[in-house]
Amino acid sequence: MKQHRHFSLPGPDNITRVEMDNGITVLIYENHSAQSVVIGGSLNVGSIFEPPQQSGLASLTANALMRGTQQRDFETLFATLEDIGADLDFSGRTHKTGFSGKSLAEDFPVLLDVLADAVRRPTFPTAEVDRLKGEALTWLQYSFHHDTRYRAAKAFREALYPTNHPYHYSAFGDIETLSALHAQDLAAFHTQHYGPQGMIVVVVGNVEAEQALNVIRETLGDWQNPRQAAPPPLPSVVTPQKPTYTSVAMPRKSQADIILGVLGPERKSSDFVAASLLNSVLGQFGMMGRIGAVIREEHGMAYYAYSRIEGGYGPGAWKIIAGVAPQNVEAAIELVKSEIRRITEELVSEEDLADNQSYFTGHLPLQLESNEGIATRLLLIESYGLGLDYLINYHDVIYSITRDDLLEVARRYWGGDGYVVAIAGPSGHDS
Amino acid sequence: MVDNVTRTTLANGLTVVLREVHNAPVASSWLLYHIGSRNEPTGKTGISHWVEHMMFKGTAAFPQGALDKEIDRNGGQWNAFTSMDYTMYYETLPADRIELALRAEADRMVNAQFDPEEVERERTVIISERQDTENEPLFWLQEAVLATAFFVHGYGHEIIGDMIDLYTMTRDDLYEHYRRHYTPSNATLVIVGDFDPEAMLQLVEKHFAPIVSEEKPKLFVRPEPPQQGERRVIVERPGETAFLEFSQRAPAATDDDWFALQVLDSALTGPGGGISNKTSRLYQALVKSEIAASVTGQLLATINPYLYSIIAVLRDGRTPQEAEAVIVQEIEKLCDEGITEQELTRAKKQARAGFAYSTESMTSQAYWLARSYSLGDPDWFARYTERLQQVTLEDVQDVARRYLRPQLRTVGWLIPTGAEL
Question: Which of A103, A215, B112, B258 could be bridged to A111 by S-S, CB 3.0 to 4.6 A?
Answer without folding.
Answer: A103
